[in-house]
Amino acid sequence: MISVQQLSGGYDGKKVVDDLSFSVEKGKITGIIGPNGSGKTTLMKMINGMLPFQSGEVLIKDKPISSYSAKELARIIAVLPQHAESSFDFTVREVVALGRYPFYKGLLKHSTPHDDEVVQNSMEFTGVEEFADKSILLLSGGERQRVLLAKALAQEPEILLLDEPTNHLDLAYQMKLMDLLKDWVEGCQLTVVAILHDLNIASLYCDQVLLLDKGKMKAIGKPGDIMDSRMLQSVYKTNLSRQEHPQKAKPLIALVPRQQDERKDLSEIVLEATPETMIFRSPFSLKTMSSALIGGGYQWANTFVNRHVNKNYNVDDAQKEFEDYLFSISLNPNDTVGMMTAARLQDAGMVSVEEKGVKLLVASTVGTGNAVDAGRSWERKDQPMPIGTINIWIFMEGKLTDEGFVQAMMTATEAKAGALRDYGIKDPVTGTPATGTSTDSVCIAATQNGEEMRYAGTITPAGKAIGKAVYQTVGTAIENYRKRMLQP
Ligand SMILES: Nc1ncnc2c1ncn2[C@@H]1O[C@H](COP(=O)(O)OP(=O)(O)OP(=O)(O)O)[C@@H](O)[C@H]1O
């Protein structure tokens, strides 16, 4: 649809955009990203014919842009500029109707019923019909932006060029606008080129992204290829981190503010214990990875609740019930990791370890009535199981990578299985050594300061410390339980 070939240009003989070549396919959204002053708007102006170029060529539908008259071009390309100020006291409907101007015929240039229908539809699409008879001067920045988009859409263009279209829009309208564009692109084969500052919007909505750096093309490709932390860091000269979107196969870019590593000492974590709950309270947030009912997966938390429930605990929505419980004791589930157990909390095993630069605090509560050998669990029938859960809490000082978290979880699980084996805990159905119970949870909570720890496998310093502490605490909890059972 658009082919940009070795394009260079700028102002007053100076090159702002240098030797760019790329093409834009029909029915796709192309995002142009890059730091301030990298030449995005200048490139856009050359693509829409507003700025003559110094060398190279821009082909629109296979024909040089210079071969189109201004009116012909206006029938193909609509533009939503960055600073579209309106100083005329037009109503919203009048402004949107201006988009139909290239289609008016004859000397009197009257609108037809079709023109009126297109204007009405464009206003409805962008949610501005409620202001139709209001002066554009009385609208907010975001409302005005939507009116100008309606005007551009009223042009029924084949190509829509947008310079920061989500500027001034609140979150809901940013998404609405991009969803709307996506619908138009898919439904009407509209081709969109949009300058975007929001890298996450670019990632979520663009089919292709062009990254400009000081007027040159740094890269072009799918968002997954362009949203690369190192490349973006080198262009934007700022700390960024690539994350995965929780629900879409699209990368997200998170800003990482530069700040001094905060001192975070595990000795500042305080345990409040009652027969009902063990609550670890931390004055700082820890990054957690857990299989817990509350705060499962990755999150940041500063409160860790191991809650004792009755053996007969049975509610339909345990997560909701647990959240309500947390609220009732003035805790916010958003920064809490919460596990439940029918095991007695006073039997917990707890240990602090400081070895070879690894500092840990580990606590385990163990109920084994429900012990299972994971390798043989397929032999079990679907029958109600007696209650019993092993909950393991691992607090550690250090900056764990994602793979480090996963390895820490594996090491903890294997150490737990080792302890159960050595304490003779068996799967009652298969008679083989149990590896855990069917409802166990592990929480790894790391301070994320200091040296990066990439590995926490069984023979790394972190892995050895985790293995030892988990083995010990699970064993202690089993012993405590057995001792209590022997008491008269
Ligand atoms: N009309 C102009 N006359 C002279 N120089 C200009 C003109 N417009 C832009 N420039 C210069 O060209 C360079 C690129 O500007 P451009 O507006 O294309 O960047 P941009 O990537 O769109 O930036 P931003 O993200 O800030 O909108 C800048 O150094 C700018 O000062």
Automatic annotation (TrEMBL):
Keywords: ATP-binding, Nucleotide-binding, Translocase, Transport. SUPFAM superfamilies: P-loop containing nucleoside triphosphate hydrolases. The keyword ATP-binding applies. SMART domains: AAA (SM00382). It comes from Fictibacillus enclensis. PROSITE patterns: ABC_TRANSPORTER_1 (PS00211), ABC_TRANSPORTER_2 (PS50893). Residues 2-239 form the ABC transporter domain. One of its GO terms (molecular function) is ATP binding. InterPro entries: AAA+_ATPase, ABC_transporter-like_ATP-bd, ABC_transporter-like_CS, AdoCbi_amidolase, P-loop_NTPase. Transmembrane segments: none annotated. This is ABC transporter ATP-binding protein. NCBIfam families: PRK13548.1.
